[in-house]
Automatic annotation (TrEMBL):
<dbReference type="InterPro" id="IPR043502">
    <property type="entry name" value="DNA/RNA_pol_sf"/>
</dbReference>
<dbReference type="GO" id="GO:0006261">
    <property type="term" value="P:DNA-templated DNA replication"/>
</dbReference>
<feature type="domain" description="DNA-directed DNA polymerase family A palm">
    <location>
        <begin position="190"/>
        <end position="396"/>
    </location>
</feature>
<dbReference type="GO" id="GO:0003887">
    <property type="term" value="F:DNA-directed DNA polymerase activity"/>
</dbReference>
<dbReference type="Pfam" id="PF00476">
    <property type="entry name" value="DNA_pol_A"/>
</dbReference>
<dbReference type="InterPro" id="IPR019760">
    <property type="entry name" value="DNA-dir_DNA_pol_A_CS"/>
</dbReference>
<dbReference type="GO" id="GO:0006302">
    <property type="term" value="P:double-strand break repair"/>
</dbReference>
<dbReference type="GO" id="GO:0003677">
    <property type="term" value="F:DNA binding"/>
</dbReference>
<keyword id="KW-0548">Nucleotidyltransferase</keyword>
<keyword id="KW-0238">DNA-binding</keyword>
<keyword id="KW-0235">DNA replication</keyword>
<keyword id="KW-0239">DNA-directed DNA polymerase</keyword>
<dbReference type="InterPro" id="IPR036397">
    <property type="entry name" value="RNaseH_sf"/>
</dbReference>
<dbReference type="InterPro" id="IPR001098">
    <property type="entry name" value="DNA-dir_DNA_pol_A_palm_dom"/>
</dbReference>
<dbReference type="InterPro" id="IPR002298">
    <property type="entry name" value="DNA_polymerase_A"/>
</dbReference>
<comment type="similarity">
    <text>Belongs to the DNA polymerase type-A family.</text>
</comment>
<protein>
    <recommendedName>
        <fullName>DNA-directed DNA polymerase</fullName>
        <ecNumber>2.7.7.7</ecNumber>
    </recommendedName>
</protein>
Length: 433
DNA sequence: GCGATCACG
DNA sequence: ACGTACGTGATCGCC
């Protein structure tokens, strides 16, 4: 969609569309969602789009040069090792080189894929693999972010995204042209790129992110005593889960056990099966099954809730978030088992992901309003699902920080506290706490 | 225009 | 026996 352009004819239809929609809103009990969240959000999103975020164009161009150099030499090495020049960006051609020409084994169940997850398993078989993985990483970042962004800036070196309020099935926002919700953050390269997103002279960026908002919402919705307890005591949820699924004391939880537990916790929100858990953690199916059982026994209401939400979705045809946002699941009646199972997982996930979206949207409207009321110069500039990014004049940082944290944490009281981490810096890397 | 891939939450 | 973790957007090759 072309941004900032409303077709002239479209304006005349808005009132008649409103007249058609109003009875529907009433029937489906959506007036609160519409008037309290989505409508007030529109001017807030408009201001964010208009403000944009500043990037350091020189920094982007310099990094582009460096990456192009490394990519060129990687390319040369890869052609040398394979003994043929081909299009590295073509998965089809790459598969031919790896599996036919170099006769590398195809990991079972993976079927000639060249996805990084498969390539990692091939690392021991040829020195070409690590070079391909590095090439992929660099080329991705180069073509998706580093090269296009300087071209997309306005005269003040600011990038303006476009938020689509109607696109997702869960109630989240979508960010496009450019998407500023998938800027790299992981690894050294990600951290480096985030240094290129900067504040204006005399300003600083404030990043405020909800800590584990989806798991807190899970605790609230399921009313599971053990899960609620973890958050009331402000304990580390992943460590607690690790202790329960490994059946050890919390003091005995090691780093990799915590990492496993983190995947189990999020897997649960996504409706993951024991098989899926085994896949992603490279476990034996029996082990994964045991972890799942240990988890569900430790948090019994979570298990009950998962069953209940599916039963209700089948009966009524939809799920609802905390603010009544529905998502419909026609596939729960599908004879196609794949579609049916997928719909079940989506039905578990939608109320959680969607409720988090409801809450952050309400917080956005309220924080934006307060910052304007208090005459801050810029304010809210980005939302990345559970993080809000602000640009604030240096002299008033502490004042803004208080307003932001207080508003976000108290916007909608749950049975567990909402916790917000705040970071401040002259670039996004520094601010992202 | 779609599938594969991979960036994020 | 089956198929197997939710939600997105951008880029590229290929038909």
């Amino acid at each position: 969609m072309k941004k900032n352009v409303i077709p002239k004819e479209g304006v005349y239809y808005i009132y008649s569309i409103y007249q058609q929609i109003l009875p529907e809103l009433l029937v489906r009990d959506l007036t609160k969602l519409f008037y309290d969240i989505e409508m007030p959000l529109i001017p807030c999103l408009y201001r964010m789009e208009k403000r944009g975020i500043k990037i350091d164009i020189q920094f982007f161009k310099q990094l582009t040069k460096e990456l192009e150099k490394e990519i060129f030499s990687l390319q040369k090495e890869i052609y040398q090792l394979s003994g043929i020049v081909f299009n590295l960006n073509s998965p089809k051609q790459l598969a031919e080189v790896l599996f036919d020409r170099l006769k590398l084994p195809i990991p079972k169940g993976k079927e000639r894929s060249t996805a990084s997850e498969v390539l990692i398993e091939l690392l021991p078989y040829s020195p070409i693999i690590e070079k391909i993985l590095r090439y992929r990483e660099l080329n991705k970042v180069l073509t998706t972010y580093l090269k296009p962004f300087p071209e997309m800036c306005d005269e003040n070196q600011r990038l303006h995204t476009y938020f689509d309020q109607t696109k997702t099935s869960t109630g989240r926002l979508a960010s496009l042209s450019p998407n500023l919700q998938n800027i790299p953050v992981r690894g050294e390269l990600g951290q480096k790129i985030r240094k290129g997103f900067i504040s204006e002279e005399g300003y600083l960026l404030i990043s405020a992110d909800y800590s584990q908002i989806e798991l807190r919402i899970l605790a609230h919705i399921t009313e599971d005593e053990n899960l609620i307890d973890v958050f009331l005591q402000d304990k580390d949820i992943h460590t607690t889960t690790a202790a329960k699924i490994f059946k050890v004391k919390e003091e005995e939880v090691k780093e990799d056990m915590r990492r496993f537990a983190k995947m189990v916790n999020y897997g649960l929100i996504y409706g993951m099966s024991d098989y899926g858990l085994a896949e992603s953690l490279r476990l034996k199916k029996e082990e994964a099954k045991e972890f799942m059982e240990n988890y569900l026994n430790s948090f019994p209401k979570v298990k009950e809730w998962r069953e209940e939400v599916i039963r209700k979705a089948k009966e009524e045809g939809y799920t609802k978030t905390l603010f009544g946002r529905p998502r419909y699941f026609p596939a729960l009646l599908s004879p196609n088992k794949t579609l049916y199972e997928q719909a079940k997982r989506q039905a578990i996930n939608a109320p959680i992901q969607g409720s988090a979206a409801d809450i952050i949207k309400k917080a956005m409207v309220e924080v934006d309003r307060k910052l304007i009321e208090n005459r801050f110069n810029i304010g809210l500039i980005l939302t990345i699902h559970d993080e809000l990014l602000f640009e604030i004049e240096k002299e008033r940082i502490e004042e803004a920080k208080e307003i932001i944290k207080e508003t976000m944490e108290n916007i909608y009281p749950l049975k567990v506290p909402l916790k917000v981490n705040i970071g401040i810096g002259k670039n996004w890397q520094e601010a992202h706490s």
